[in-house]
Write a structure and sequence with these properties.
Layout (H helix, E strand, L loop, with lengths): L1 E2 L13 H21 L5 E5 L6 H13 L13 H8 L5 E3 L13 H9 L11 E5 L7 H12 L5 E7 L7 H4 L3 E4 L5 H10 L4 H11 L3 H8 L1 H15 L1 H12 L3 H27 L15 H15 L2 H21 L6 H16 L2
Parallel strand pairs: 1-3, 2-5, 2-6, 3-4, 4-5
């Protein structure tokens, strides 16, 4: 495999069989159509939320497309092309990655100039050439225009496989040249299996699968010891915000990952509290936690929510407060795009919880 990223250690993505099988079932109809027509789309764009295996899927598709047998809608694993893929030396595949090799990096025009320079070079055995561009939202404006020119008239035998979590971040003219397929979030049962494969303690697996809302990447973050402990700390913050405000602020402002995780955690708690208010109005003596994200903290959240109702005077007023915080969190997601001071943003976010507790 040829790689136009700066870091060859990101060259190979070994797909999880569980993830591939889950998405393969959804892709079967499209793959069967390609097989029967003996034609592949020149440009396929896979979309879907971060952390669901989009990059793994385009690696799977590349191997299948280049397989010399391709009889059972999966790569045979035995032909010359499949052997090359296993060894990480598939010469008919080019992957274009950012310097970091991960989502959030920039794809630069120099990488596409190098790609264009390879036009006209032969492929092994007269096969197709597959160009993988994961995280295509990282294209710089110059790189976007360069890729767009390539896609206007793709070189004969070239197949582009792209991924993005949000098509609105791409040029509309770029999206219009793609066949688009949206991958579904991973089911909780699949995430639980994957977390077990990653060695996550059993008592965390189901909780983290619910918190992740379909993303393996997020599930693994929530399962980390540090984040798991911070989740407990945040529950303490809700109970005694004056005492725990500083530790929560310090942790959340350490780096962008902590900041985003803190926002995720607050959204989770806030959503459960809104669910609690709806259930409480129907039956004050019972509450249904089946749809809750933090089901292991249900009793603590019930105790906290009941105390908030006493402070604010009614369930409806408490719910309005949590709804207001939900709107603020949504706005904060937008503000994350700007280079603002994280500690100030966290302070602005958490202070209303402190103030209402002091009423």
């Amino acid at each position: 495999m040829t790689n136009l990223s700066a870091d060859p250690t990101h060259l190979q993505t070994e797909p999880s069989e569980t993830v591939i099988q889950y998405h393969r079932d959804a892709l079967l109809g499209m793959m069967q159509e390609w097989t029967s027509s003996h034609r592949f789309p020149p440009v396929l764009l896979l979309t879907g939320q971060p952390g669901i295996g989009k990059r793994e899927v385009i690696h799977f598709l590349a191997r299948w497309i280049l397989c010399e047998k391709r009889e059972s809608l999966t790569a045979c694993g035995q032909c010359f092309s499949c052997e090359q893929s296993k060894n990480g030396h598939q010469v008919n595949v080019i992957e274009i990655l950012s310097d970091s090799g991960e989502e959030g990096g920039s794809l630069k025009i120099e990488q596409f100039r190098e790609l264009k320079a390879s036009i006209g070079l032969g492929t092994h055995g007269g096969q197709n050439k597959v160009i993988l561009i994961p995280y295509v939202e990282g294209l710089t404006p110059q790189a976007s225009n360069s890729l767009l020119k390539l896609l206007e008239e793709p070189p004969a035998g070239w197949i582009f496989l792209l991924t993005t979590h949000d098509t609105t971040l791409l040029l509309p003219t770029l999206v219009s040249r793609c066949q688009t397929f949206r991958l579904k979030p991973l089911k909780n049962e699949i995430l639980t299996t994957l977390l077990a494969q990653h060695g996550v303690p059993s008592e965390r697996q189901w909780i983290c699968s619910k918190l992740a809302q379909g993303s393996l990447k997020r599930a693994l973050v929530f399962a980390e010891d540090e984040v798991w402990e911070q989740r407990q700390l945040f529950m303490q913050f809700l109970r005694a915000p004056q005492r725990y405000l500083q530790p929560v602020m310090e942790w959340g402002s350490q780096n962008p990952q902590n900041f985003e995780t803190l926002i995720d955690l607050l959204e989770h708690f806030n959503s459960d509290l809104i669910r609690w208010s709806a259930s409480h109005e129907l039956n004050p003596h019972e509450f249904n936690t089946e749809a809750w994200l933090n089901i292991d903290l249900a009793e603590a959240l019930d105790e906290y929510a009941s105390s908030m109702v006493k402070v604010m005077g009614s369930v409806s007023l408490a719910r309005q407060f949590w709804m207001n915080q939900a709107e603020r969190l949504a706005q904060l997601r937008i503000e994350l795009m700007a280079p603002l001071n994280r500690k100030i943003l966290i302070q602005d976010l958490l202070f209303p919880w402190l103030e209402v507790k002091n009423l």
